[in-house]
Write a structure and sequence with these properties.
Blueprint (H helix, E strand, L loop, with lengths): L6 H13 L3 H18 L3 H17 L3 H15 L6 H17 L3 H17 L4 H17 L3 H15 L6 H17 L3 H26 L15
Helix pairs in contact: 1-2, 2-3, 3-4, 4-5, 5-6, 5-7, 6-7, 7-8, 8-9, 9-10
């Protein structure tokens, strides 16, 4: 396939290479696209998309440090583009989640709170908002800010309940709540949270087993002798 020798051409080349699993080639093409878009001067959206996609690419290549840099570059560009609230929120969420995994809890908290600020300004996916509160709960728990952690996990549950197929995620929240209530000596609430987690895990497992069950033989009606 032939590509134009401008930013859009290299961006398309990068997407195609990424789809084929040729990640080093995709990285080089995104970087070249960024250089060309910067030369054009008015392509902020395209530059931001390149940096954002590079962040995703680096995560797949297990290069988290470079992923952080790429997402931070994307964030700086999205801030300059009107109407980019949804992109800002998603990038803050990704950075917050990534920095938490890199044991940078303070930096993670800043990004997660910035994501929440974007959620207040415009509607966003309930799943994203739930994940943001879960990660804040983890940050607060690491800092032994147990009351804030309890609030965060409960807020996550509110959003998970608006989303289908989140029984396992909800179970994790209830498990965290059970642990926090137990530490606070609130044993009745702890027991209730652990019980809710167990019910949700059982429900998720039953659903998984049902999805794996072989399809019923449509040729033999119920109650009819198969011999």
């Amino acid at each position: 396939m032939s590509y134009t020798q401008d930013g859009h051409g290299f961006f398309t080349r990068a997407l195609d290479a990424e789809d084929r699993g040729r990640l080093d080639e995709a990285e080089t093409a995104y970087q070249q696209a960024i250089v060309l878009f910067e030369e054009e001067g008015d392509s902020l959206q395209e530059q931001a998309a390149c940096h954002y996609n590079l962040g995703h690419l680096y995560l797949g290549m297990n290069r988290p440090g470079r992923a952080v840099t790429a997402y931070e570059n994307a964030l700086g560009l999205f801030c300059r583009i009107p109407g980019s609230g949804k992109h800002l929120a998603r990038t803050h969420l990704i950075l917050g989640s990534l920095l938490l995994e890199l044991d940078r809890a303070h930096d993670a908290e800043e990004h997660l709170l910035d994501a929440l600020g974007q959620y207040l300004d415009a509607p966003h996916e309930a799943q994203d908002q739930a994940q943001c509160h879960v990660n804040l709960g983890r940050v607060y728990e690491l800092g032994e800010r147990h009351t804030q952690a309890i609030t965060a996990y409960n807020r996550a549950l509110d959003f998970y309940q608006e989303t289908e197929a989140t029984a396992t995620d909800q179970a994790e929240c209830f498990t965290a709540l059970g642990r926090l209530y137990e530490r606070a000596g609130r044993m009745k609430e702890s027991g209730a949270a652990y019980a809710a987690a167990a019910r949700l895990r059982w429900s998720a497992e039953q659903q998984r087993l049902e999805q794996q069950s072989p399809t019923r033989d449509a040729g033999v009606p119920d109650g009819e002798d198969r011999s």
